[in-house]
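Exercise 7.
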Amino acid sequence: MKKETGYNTLEDEVDNDARGSNNNNAQNSNDNNAQGSQDDTELARVVKIAPEFESSADGISAAALGWMHFRLMISLTFGVIAVANMIEIVPLIMGELQNEYGTSGAVTSLASAGLMLGGVCGTFLAAYALDAYGRKTTMVCSSMNGIVATIAQVSVPGGPAYFSILVICRFLLGITFGSLMTSTKPYLLEFLPNTWRGCILQIIGLGWSAGVFMCIFIVWSLPEGNWRMAALISSIPLFIFAILLLIPGFMPESPRWLYINGREKEAQAIISKLWNDKLDCSNLFPSENVTKFTNDNQSWGRRISQIFGPSFRLKTFLFLSSYFCLSGGNYGLNTWKVVFLDPKGYNRGLPTASLIILEATAVAFELPGAFALDIFGRKSVLLIGWLGAFLCMSAAGIGSSMESLEANRYTFMTVVLALAQGTTDLIWSALAVICLESFPTYCRGTAFGFSNVSIRLSAAIFSFLGGFVIDQWGVTSAYAMLAGIFLSGFFLGLFIEETANKPVEDVHDEEAEDLALVTKSSRDCFCCAPKH
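Solution. The predicted structure, written as tokens, is:
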């Protein structure tokens, strides 16, 4: 029994000290935990630690859609509208060009074919510049050239002697046409997360339909004979796009391209903006394979050899051939759609209502098609588009030769061509997404550029050939030609691989591994060589 005094026993004092110490420690621990929790909360709010990502590509692919994505989508939509206006304005002013320059329909189509031939040069230049100098630099130079060429073409006087000068101006504008067509989607793709990638790429494609509507409205609202004013007004989106490109920081360079070209600090800053400055990107670097591969393979010749090498040879052939079929069919149809709608000229003037129906149908197909790309897969949408376009052209060919449809031929052709417009839009959407996702960042610009060369060549050929076939054998033969083209595309599409929801590569793994083995083998041989 403890003796009770006015003081605590030694044992009591020890117990009290221990309890007091524990209480103090617990209080300090609670304070520290509270402070730490507050710090952790603040850190989680401001910074997401980067090491959980294995590479810079993971940091880009995991970013949620934000303000940068949306402003890029809006800006690039202006670019797509500008590109659409360059080509879509021509069929609407074809009659005015014929009257002013005194040329036949086939010769006047050179105004469109000249744009396509310039597009071939622009596509080649873009294929090189995209990978060598960057996505944004390519678009800036293209836009500046387009502005100069637009002003030049509306300054050409009338008369047969000056038509060749107009074609030259169209050729120069075509350089911008081909370059922007080649660069806008690869640029946007390299900012996007894996989810809904196909849908987002398709949404900016709606700018094409917006451009067609704009061209129709411009020509409809202006008095006849004002094709120069129509062409100038239709170039307004190009001016807007150029301004947006020149605003500092508004449209940054592709972070994937920056990493591939050794500019890590700039890429890290852009990825941080993708995460609204909530990601510490100082530890985000490309994978070892990417660094090893790109340091030794920066030449354009090496990129070309890769897309035609064993790993990508079949894919390159399929995309070149598929784009040749798609472009030939689509441009052959669009260049002469006014004639297809009314081959005998019963309705004088521009068939504005029918043209609006055609583009409205395209939009009606594009919106669900954008979601279908990610829900049902790119390949399914692609094959449905090919088959639908073939059936539409077959129906148009049969209908054009049936006398029983004579009274309602205009309405029938409007419906059939509207469906053809919608199905070809599905093909454009699916094929572009698959092509971009099938090649790594290292050679994506080159691969997509070569595919677009096929587009320009085919468009130039069939824009002219369509008019020639119509003049020589009539619209039924032209429909048969287009149906055969779309059927060929369908068979090619059967061999194209699905790419939905697969990660986008920066370099091809097999190529990088082969290079690593070659480098290691060379090093081993050097180390084992006898020393003299």
